[in-house]
Amino acid sequence: MSKQSVSMADVARYAGVSPQTVSRVANEHPGVVDGTRQRVLDAMEDLRYRPNSAARALKRGSFQSLGVVLSGLTSTGNYLTLEGIVRSANQHGYSMTVMTLDEASDENLGNIFHRMSEAAVDGAILLLEIEAADELHLTRLPYDRLVIVDSNAAYRFPVVDSDQASGTRAVMDHLLGLGHSTVHHVGGPENSFSAAARADSWREYLVAHGRPVPEPIIGDWSAESGYRAGVHIADDGVATAVFVANDEMALGLMRALGERGIRVPQDVSVVGFDDIALAANFPVPLTTVHQNFDEVGRRCVEMLIRRIEGDSVPPGVDLVPTSLVVRQSTAPPWR
Fold first, then answer.
1. Mean pLDDT of 26-45
2. Mean of the per-residue pLDDT values for the chain?
3. For every residue of the chain, which 3-state class applies, written as one string?
4. Considering 2, 5, 32, 179, which has the largest number of Cβ atoms within 10 A of its Cβ?
């Protein structure tokens, strides 16, 4: 008997039970004794029967499927957060549909959600790394089962974010505590929420402590942009400490400094953000801010499932703690 031709009635006859019992087992109804349930499951396996997912969803009110919309996988933060989301969804028995938004616009996001509705997802996580309130009209989306990562849309939706401000303050406490008079900054893209949060916290800290605020250098998260920033800092010859908005840019910056005979940390201290797996194995192990991307993903999934199941999840920000990991790339200033 082919997989396509197997019906619930066929399974019932094979297992010696009623079609209603097969239906209860297929829909995970608790009112079936263990022995009978196992006999039906064995029959399904022998006959290669797969319950109709659409019919099950109608009975259950859920497709057991989550969507993720993200701006791309080139960002290490996006990739690691997605890993955490997928891992947590699997643990809760949910499948995943992942789509990328190449360009942030209402039309493009609307098209993606239309495609997601055809894929029958119960809710979505937005991992867009943009200033959402400025770029997109999220209230126009077709449903409100949304959770957002790293966004300024917290007054309309639940948001999960790493504690960017606390992590940045820890960097500044560390560097100024070592005796540096100020801290230069290499930031991420201007339209990135997380980059803006780190840059704002850096600037506010220096102002609050009466320290000079150097003009920041803007990168694009890549090691190449960090290298270009390092060339600029080396040519300028003023910085004794640099806070870089992610570890990849820090790697490029350290390479540029090294090529120009500037030692890390003897001449310039460097701090990154993310604590990627390679950070501890840089030629000079990198002092950096550890982000728990797995925990961010877990909280997103659990918050979204609560919304799907009808629980009240009010708008607001759920902050995941960050921590400073001190390694060998920072030291007191030489001058």
1. 85
2. 87
3. CCHHHCCHHHHHHHHCCCHHHHHHHHCCCCCCCHHHHHHHHHHHHHHCCCCCHHHHHHHHCCCCEEEEEECCCCCHHHHHHHHHHHHHHHHCCCEEEEEECCCCCHHHHHHHHHHHHHCCCCEEEEECCCCHHHHCCHHHCCCCCEEEECCCCCCCCEEEEECHHHHHHHHHHHHHHCCCCCCEEEECCCCCHHHHHHHHHHHHHHHHCCCCCCCCEECCCCHHHHHHHHHHHHHHCCCCEEEECCHHHHHHHHHHHHHCCCCCCCCCEEEEEECCCCHHHCCCCCEEEECCHHHHHHHHHHHHHHHHCCCCCCCEEEEECCEEECCCCCCCCCC
4. 32
* Integer Cα distance of 102 and 189 in angstroms: 15
Query: Per the structure block, which two tokens stand in for 243?
Result: 């806070």
pTM score, whole prediction: 0.79
pLDDT for the residue numbered 22 = 85
Bridge partners, 97 (sequence order): 67
Q: How confident is the model at residue 218 (pLDDT cuts 50, 70, 90)?
A: very high
Q: What is the pLDDT of residue 1?
A: 47
Read off the amino acid at residue 85. Answer: I
